[in-house]
Amino acid sequence: MNPIIPTDPEQTAIYSPRLGKFMQDANLTPDFPTAASTVHAMWERKTGQRVDGVISIDPVALSYILAATGPVQLSDPGLLRLANLGLPTELRGDNVVKTLLSDVYAKIEEPSLQDAYFAGVAQEIFSTLSKGQSDGKNLIKGITRGVEERRVLMWSSSSDEQATLGKYQVSGSIAGSSVSPAQFGVYFNDGTGAKMDYYTKRTVQLIKECPRDGYEETTVRVTSTNTAPADAATSLPPYVTGDGVFGVPPGSVQTNIVAYGPAQAHVETAKLDGQKTDFAPYFHGNRPVGVLAIRLAPGESRTVDFTFGKIVQHTEPNVVVTPTVQDVKDVTLPIESVACG
């Protein structure tokens, strides 16, 4: 599987050559400059058009924008025909996330029609935005919240502009001046080959262990729960469950958990539900990376611990997590310190 777009060998080792082969896989990496520049190159090769930059806005950030614009009434006849399958004809801040991340896949079985719905909705929403009739103060507030929660990311094809963006977290970079010295990262990649991640709820917590040999140690604890109904295998559409096509039983969800430590540290061990387990260790941009796949049946919870050692940054750690449908404050738990003695 040779990539269409050349990719960084370190990231290819972690995320496979699919990173540069399929546009939908370009964001397997959490490094947005890599994902954005790859998409940029793919778009130019496919269409001959060279765009000035790439902006990522997730559906939750879109809900913040809709809170400022007010409801968007769908008017396109094609969209209204698709909406007749059971989707809303009015998109609001309180229904757009469920509509775009769940209901579309449950109500529209044909992928090409799903794509048409997404494209049409995007056009209608940004048409509303371009009219300038939204509440400017609330719009800025909503976009700012999206940036703070890493739901809005930006990349520029201009090296000078990108150098400026790279100083801020809106760049979505995993290295450089926008990354704090003792920053950890926890990122989630779907392994189900379907749309089951919508039903997965998670918490992430840093646990400061007792120092060893003069170095700091920190454990990254990730607890995941599959909240899908017990009968998800039959009550949810095959397109949502994956229907077992990629080896995951219908109703179950499989996730690749990717944990990054601070630069120059080492990922020492991984545990699954308290028991040591094998994991895949890597390095990306001088940062240690641990990867472990978990599978959850409906109602099942599992906990993964990655322990990082030889941490030389004696500063308060922080953690960056892939934003999901959950409120950020519900995902990232307060740091815990283990008493030494």
The average pLDDT score comes to 93
Question: In angstroms, what is the radius of gyration?
Answer: 21 Å
Q: Based on DSSP secondary structure assignment, what is the total number of beta strands?
A: 15
The poorly predicted ranges are none
Biggest β-sheet description: 6 strands, mixed
Task: Briefly note the structural class of the backbone.
Answer: alpha+beta
Overall geometry: globular
The helix fraction, in percent, is: 25-40%
The strand order across the widest sheet is: 10-9-13-7-6-15
Q: Which percent range describes the beta-strand content?
A: 25-35%
Query: Separation of termini?
Result: 52 Å
State the helix count: 11
Number of domains: 2
**Which H/E pattern describes the elements?**
HHEHEHEHHHEHEEEHHEEEEEEEHE
What is the fold's blueprint, element by element?
Layout: H1 9-15, H2 32-47, E1 53-57, H3 59-69, E2 72-73, H4 77-83, E3 90-91, H5 96-107, H6 111-130, H7 136-148, E4 152-156, H8 159-165, E5 183-190, E6 200-212, E7 215-226, H9 232-235, H10 238-241, E8 253-260, E9 266-272, E10 275-276, E11 280-284, E12 287-296, E13 301-311, E14 318-321, H11 328-331, E15 336-337
Parallel strand pairs: 5-14, 6-15
Antiparallel strand pairs: 1-4, 2-3, 5-8, 6-7, 7-13, 8-12, 9-10, 9-13, 11-12
